[in-house]
Amino acid sequence: MKQASLFIAAIGGFTGVALGAFGAHGLKNSLAPAQLAVFQTGVQYQLLHSLALLGLAVLLRQHDSSLFRWTGRCFVVGTVLFSGSLYLLALSGIRPLGMITPLGGVALLAGWFCLALGAWREGHAPAA
Predict the structure, then answer these.
(1) Which domain holds residue 45?
(2) Are 52 and 82 in contact (CB under 8 A)?
(3) Which protein family is named in the record (predicted)?
């Protein structure tokens, strides 16, 4: 997962920037403002979690724990489901696609929970 996290973070960052530019320039005249906002939310979450995955790749080089590896898996699945469903929803207008978005959100939350739990177990949490 160490090498995969770095690679996926790079691809996620690259495609996030490309999709952001596409949304800002290529879609601004063809989508309604509400649809464009949905698309941009997908871009924001994709870029945020690409950066988080980049940080995780660095962390995994020092602390290769199963919880940190699960963090990466959850971030990848969550980003694909959350951002991907928002992209499809904005571009197609198919409302039932919006039912996939919360599943992605739960996966992202699970990733952050795994990261916190892993930090706690590895002794990286602040002392109380």
Answers:
(1) 2-120
(2) no
(3) Belongs to the UPF0382 family.
- The type of residue at 51 is L
The whole-number mean pLDDT for each consecutive block of 10 residues of the chain, a chain of 128 residues, reads 85 97 93 95 98 95 92 98 97 93 98 95 70
Distances (CA, A) of 37 to 24, 28, 40, 76: 10, 10, 5, 22
Assigned token pair, 99: 């039912």
Q: Is the pTM of this model over 0.85?
A: yes
Q: Does residue 86 sit within a domain? A: yes
Query: What is the spatial distance between Cα 39 and Cα 123, in angstroms, rounded to a whole number?
Result: 38
Segment holding 54, helix H or strand E:
helix 33-62
- Token readout for 54 is 């980049």
Is 128 among the domain residues?
Answer: no
**Residue 125: inside a domain:** no
Write out the H or E segment, with its range, that includes residue 26: none
